[in-house]
Amino acid sequence: MSTALLDVHLTGADADAALRADARAGLTADPKQLPPKWFYDARGSELFEKITELPEYYPTRTERALLLDSVGEIATASGAHTVVELGSGSSYKTRVLLDAFAKAGTLRRYVPQDVSESALRGAMDALEEEYPGLELHGVVGDFTRDLGRLPRGGRRMIAFLGGTIGNLLPDERAAFLAHVRSVLEPGEQLLLGTGLVIDPAVLVPAYDDAAGVTAEFNRNVLRVLNRELGADFDEEAFAHVALWDAENEWIEMRLRAERDMTVTVAELDLTVAFAAGEEMRTEVSAKFRPDGVRAMLVDAGFELTRWWSDRDGRFGLSLGTAL
């Protein structure tokens, strides 16, 4: 009999309301923009998995290798009894963390958090078989607002990997890290994965691959709006754009209208005009410098306890301890 717990704080109705609010706000903004979380329906998730296997896309394999090299030290330095993973899905990184913390002898509980109830149920079913005796407590929710619903107790370490923090704008990052700190007790920890600033000649192709997979991924947000909100975007009339913003030190992904057009979003009773050449931002992927990561953590109320990076300086893992 299963003893795993699953708390659901985000329903399909919640997601629909959020999509409607984001689409209305973003399509009526100047310049237009859409949040990157709406890339990830089933097709978008499949496309992203393909992206991670592309020769140009170094972030996933770099973080994976760094995590494998460092995870024993991470587990020893942390000593956490509870590992919380934000945006866990069913990823490979989960097992790397669990194996290391189990080997260190401290692991008692794993708390995966994700927006997808089905993904969490599938992952927890598999983990229950693979890790008998491990307490499992899943949380379906939005990491930007539902962290207060994470189970407490048991000396926790929250893992936020994949460089996902780079998808947040500076004010959003600061608010998110402050939110994380507010739900942790002094001495509990945050393991943060950050992409680092490198040569744009390597960085930009990671978001603009020769095979065009990232372009399809980018346009997938339009398919989501067409399906979920009755929009009539001509997906092929939008070109994929990826560029390096040196001032903000982030990659911007945009969709550029190739011609003048008018788009109707039936479910929002909204008509949106695009001029030829107009660009709509769909993602920011900020890259960081080690001193900037330290400052970001300190500002949120953490001490940078340990830092790990690959030999090429492409990715960083930081262990911050709540003060």
Summarize the SSE layout with pairings.
Layout lengths: L4 E4 L3 H16 L14 H11 L5 H21 L3 E5 L5 H13 L4 E6 L2 H14 L4 E6 L15 E5 L9 H14 L5 E7 L4 H4 L9 H17 L8 E8 L4 E8 L3 E5 L4 E5 L4 E8 L3 H11 L1 E8 L5 E8 L1
Parallel strand pairs: 1-4, 2-3, 2-5, 3-4, 5-6
Antiparallel strand pairs: 6-13, 7-8, 8-11, 9-10, 12-13
Helix pairs in contact: 2-8, 3-4, 6-9
Residue share in β-strands: 25-35%
**Radius of gyration of CA atoms, rounded to a whole number:** 20 Å
Structural class, judged by helices and strands?
alpha/beta
Task: Name the CATH superfamily assignment.
Answer: Vaccinia Virus protein VP39
Largest sheet features = 8 strands, mixed
Gap between N and C termini, in Å?
A: 40 Å
Q: What's the mean pLDDT score?
A: 94
- CATH topology annotation: Rossmann fold
Shape annotation: globular
Low-pLDDT windows of residues:
none
Explain this structure.
- The chain has one domain (1-232, 289-323): 3-Layer(aba) Sandwich (Rossmann fold).
- Helices cover 37% and strands 26% of the residues.
- The protein contains nine helices and 13 strands.
- The strands form three sheets. An eight-stranded mixed beta sheet has the order 1-4-3-2-5-6-13-12, sandwiched between helices. It has a three-stranded antiparallel beta sheet with strand order 7-8-11, covered by helices on one side. Strands 9-10 form a two-stranded antiparallel ribbon.
- Strand 7 (238-245) and strand 8 (250-257) form a beta hairpin.
- The radius of gyration is 20 Å and the shape is globular.
- The mean pLDDT is 94.
